[in-house]
Amino acid sequence: MIQSAKRLDIVQEYYFSIKLREVRNLVAAGKPIINMGIGSPDLQPPAKVIEAIQSSLLDANAHKYQSYQGLPELRTAIADFYKNKYNVVANPENEILPLMGSKEGIMHISLAFLNEGDQVLIPNPGYPTYTSVTNLVGAEPLFYNLSEENNWQPNFEELENQDLSGVKIMWVNYPHMPTGTNATLETLEKLVAFGKKYQILIINDNPYSFILNDNPISILQVKGAKDIALELNSLSKTFNMAGWRVGMVLGNATYLNEILKVKSNMDSGMFYGIQKGAIEALQLSNDWFAVQNKIYEDRRALVWQLADKLNTTYNKNATGLFVWAKIAEGKKSEEVTDFVLYDKDIFITPGTVFGSQGEGYIRFSLCVTSEIIKEAIRRFDK
Question: Which of 81, 94, 241, 246 is most buried, judging by how many CB atoms fall within 10 Å of its CB?
């Protein structure tokens, strides 16, 4: 057998890849599994978006290679979206780069800016991909703890007490996944100041802005943010287009040009029809968000009832596609989720997937219908 690359020695298969295989095996064995573990929207994309991709298929350029920078009209639609929704001005010519999903952007940014041995500040709890990509490129993860006591905001006093001389990038993710906590503008201002003081590139990963959130904000709203900050965003959650793989990175033209050097060597442009659909999505009125959020509000109220069955506590002001719940003192996250899976045939996520600070918590997804959530509740009443 050919030996695999040494970089894989410190990277494991993604948790959900492993666990969903286990879940599929249970389903194949006849178990009526309810999957409340992942944030893959079950709702349909907007009808206008579907129509746009359908009507684009006969366009003369529909099936050719596309620009690495995306259609000019897509970049313009992103710029208009950011101006209308965040009051952020971004030049569509050189401050916006469409991506095939924002997850792709995590790798592109890391390849563009990290050398072997560079350090990367990563939130704990946080999205596991920040850590795995950091390891894949030979950089060193340096975790900063977030806690419920500090409302899951960075503790800047703790950060500044560390040796930051080797840190090149800091990942932040607000609204925060998995806890659903929104950043305050004060936090974003402190992040920009922190990045400038220590010459650390701050990247906010921002795909959950419009899910159950009345106050969508962007780090690029902060004065001078483009000097030191980038923002990733995505259509996956907002418009139920997870499988389409449409994301974007915004920021300083110099930074984006470096990312483009990586991206242009790794793909051959986004499919034309998907770009046309994305343009249509970005032009939708606020009515779209209102309708979506009413559905999620109803589901969340039911998930709270389910969480009560497990004697957990949770923040009713949290945003996003999940309910992050604290389990009873002394219990372990994976013990609770395994009990729920094997005794109740319900798959939920242990907080430890997102780091050591996730111990003592579990996460429920809102990406299932109200009827299915009611069935999950009934299973605890039997």
Answer: 246
Does 14 score more than 70 pLDDT? Answer: no
Count of structural domains, the chain? 2
CA 109 to chain CA mean position, Å: 15
User: What distance in Å separates the CA atoms of residue 242 and residue 367, rounded to the nearest whole number?
Assistant: 12
Looking up tokens 């605890």, which residue turns up? 380
239 and 121 within one domain: yes
**Is residue 1 assigned to a domain?**
no
Residues 277 and 49 sit within 8 Å (Cβ to Cβ): yes
Per residue in 340-364, pLDDT (tens digit) is: 999 999 999 999 999 999 999 999 9
Question: Residue 343's domain is classified under what CATH number?
Answer: 3.90.1150.10
Q: Which pLDDT belongs to residue 94?
A: 97
Given a cut of 90, whether residue 318 has pLDDT beyond it is: yes
Q: Of 237, 255, 283, which residue is a domain's last?
A: 283
pLDDT digits 0-9 by tens, 285-313: 999 999 999 999 999 999 999 999 999 99
Closest to 124 (Cα-Cα) out of 145, 155, 152: 145
More confident residue, 252 or 214: 252
Helices first, then strands: H and E counts in the chain? 12, 13
Domain boundary among 237, 259, 283: 283
Gyration radius of the chain over CA positions: 21
Q: What is the CATH number of the domain that holds 210?
A: 3.40.640.10
